[in-house]
């Protein structure tokens, strides 16, 4: 038996890192009198670009809207196909539905949560316009392999519209919603594919409450600064001037050049990002890494524990999720463990219900039996708490609670 702990304070799943610095930064913006998109947002974009070392960065109000605008800019629409993993959050697929294109879902790799790249390649046809792999849990996919795959099939690519003709091959957008700060070839991810897309949602490692960012790395003859301007305008009703520029003397007049959308990031959100950025690489990521090491240490000798992959020779995770799997568990077993932990005050989660499980996609005709690896891995997955303020003692409570439960079965 492991230590029996006294009743403890509940352990949440993934609270944001909020402290006096964060509160001061937001208060400063409130006091400045400028709370929508302005200098803080533009400066955050520069900080992120400097951190990643890729093309220009555009911050918007969510990954979802940012990537939908990107797909619209690429004129992806009815008749087009976008390849995505079945093992992802609904946002990855919903935006493809919004634009009238077809999501083509791919099963997981063997014994891993990332998209099987062989199956993805087999799904490519002349209608494929985009491949959008997901860096599940913060572990980057093999970007080089995906880019090569996109280029290898350029011969059958059938472009429609100016931007597709200019690229003349399948576009690669990384769903890097989980992987801000993950490493690929020893550098933070974001410059390896045509467009990298991060989420800064409240549960993410790096948060602006809600938010997201695009990194534009399109090859010549594209002008990535011009793309930044195009998407920025699309994100503000197609308006030729943003709110701050309009306040300058004599600058009230503007034009609308397209029926755009409304999904800009506010300076209040960007202030959160400023604080995060200043400490992300130095202490936030290392703390997450040490929590993972402590979980691994506790579980490595347990025959029932399948530990999540966190790195290999090329990639290192951002340690966004600790996706433990329990050998031999089915969904009912896993759910019973979740309930047991919840009764002890420990919040856990499941990432993800594969999309074919969800009514909308089921009703579209997607069948669970076509995604055996996704469902096998989902059935015994449990995501354990991981966040900056989680203490070693709390990690020990969690690991002991799980080990005791497994021993008592
Ligand atoms: C894999 C994945 N993609 C996309 C998203 C959407 O991000 P956002 O909430 O910023 O739109 C999420 C959010 O949880 C996600 O987990």
Report on the architecture of this protein.
By secondary structure, the chain is α/β, with parallel strands linked by helices. The protein has helices at residues 20-32, 39-52, 63-73, 90-98, 117-122, 143-152, 161-167, 224-234, 243-246, 267-299, 331-343, 359-363, 372-379, 392-408; strands at residues 57-60, 81-85, 102-106, 128-131, 171-175, 183-184, 187-188, 195-199, 212-216, 305-306, 315-316, 322-326, 381-384. It folds into 2 domains: 20-271, Aspartate Aminotransferase, domain 2 (3-Layer(aba) Sandwich); 280-408, Aspartate Aminotransferase, domain 1 (Alpha-Beta Complex). The protein has 14 helices and 13 strands. The strands form 3 sheets. The protein has a 7-stranded mixed sheet, sandwiched between helices. The protein has a 3-stranded antiparallel sheet with strand order 7-6-11, with no helix packed on it. Helix 4 links the parallel strand 2 and strand 3 (102-106). The model is unreliable at 1-5 (pLDDT under 50). Bound molecules: pyridoxal-5'-phosphate.
Which terms would index this structure?
409 residues, alpha/beta, Aspartate Aminotransferase, domain 2, Aspartate Aminotransferase, domain 1, seven-stranded mixed β-sheet, three-stranded antiparallel β-sheet, 39% helix, binds pyridoxal-5'-phosphate
């Amino acid at each position: 038996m492991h230590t029996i702990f006294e009743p403890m304070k509940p352990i949440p799943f993934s609270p944001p890192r909020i402290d006096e610095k964060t509160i001061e930064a937001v208060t400063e913006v409130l006091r400045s009198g400028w709370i929508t998109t302005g200098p803080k947002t533009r400066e955050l974009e520069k900080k992120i670009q400097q951190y990643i070392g890729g093309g220009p960065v555009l911050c918007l109000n969510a990954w979802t809207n940012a990537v939908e605008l990107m797909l619209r800019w690429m004129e992806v629409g009815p008749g087009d196909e976008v390849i995505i993993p079945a093992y992802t959050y609904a946002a990855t697929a919903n935006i493809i539905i919004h634009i009238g294109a077809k999501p083509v879902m791919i099963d997981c790799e063997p014994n891993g949560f990332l998209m099987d790249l062989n199956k993805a390649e087999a799904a490519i046809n002349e209608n494929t316009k985009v491949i959008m792999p997901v860096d599940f849990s913060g572990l980057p996919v093999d970007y080089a392999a995906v880019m090569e795959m996109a280029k290898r099939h350029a011969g059958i690519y059938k472009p429609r519209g100016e931007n597709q003709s200019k690229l003349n091959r399948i576009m690669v957008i990384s769903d890097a919603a989980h992987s801000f700060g993950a490493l690929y070839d020893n550098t933070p991810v974001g410059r390896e594919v045509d467009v990298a897309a991060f989420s800064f949602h409240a549960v993410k490692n790096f948060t602006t409450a809600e938010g997201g960012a695009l990194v534009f790395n399109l090859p010549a003859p594209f002008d990535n600064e011009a793309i930044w301007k195009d998407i920025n305008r699309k994100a503000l009703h197609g308006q030729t001037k943003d709110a701050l520029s309009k306040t300058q003397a004599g600058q009230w007049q503007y034009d609308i050049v397209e029926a755009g959308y409304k999904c800009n990031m506010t300076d209040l959100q960007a202030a959160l990002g400023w604080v995060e950025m200043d400490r992300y690489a130095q202490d936030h990521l290392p703390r997450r890494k040490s929590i993972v090491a402590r979980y691994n240490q506790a579980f490595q000798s347990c025959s029932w524990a399948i530990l999540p992959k966190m790195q290999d020779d090329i990639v290192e995770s951002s340690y966004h999720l600790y996706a433990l799997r329990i050998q031999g568990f089915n969904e009912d077993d896993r759910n019973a463990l979740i309930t047991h932990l919840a009764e002890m005050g420990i919040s856990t989660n499941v990432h993800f219900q594969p999309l074919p499980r969800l009514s909308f996609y089921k009703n579209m005709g997607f069948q669970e039996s076509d995604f055996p690896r996704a469902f096998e891995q989902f059935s015994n997955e449990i995501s354990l708490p991981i966040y900056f303020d989680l203490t070693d003692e709390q990690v020990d409570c969690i690991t002991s609670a799980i080990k005791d439960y497994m021993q008592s079965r």
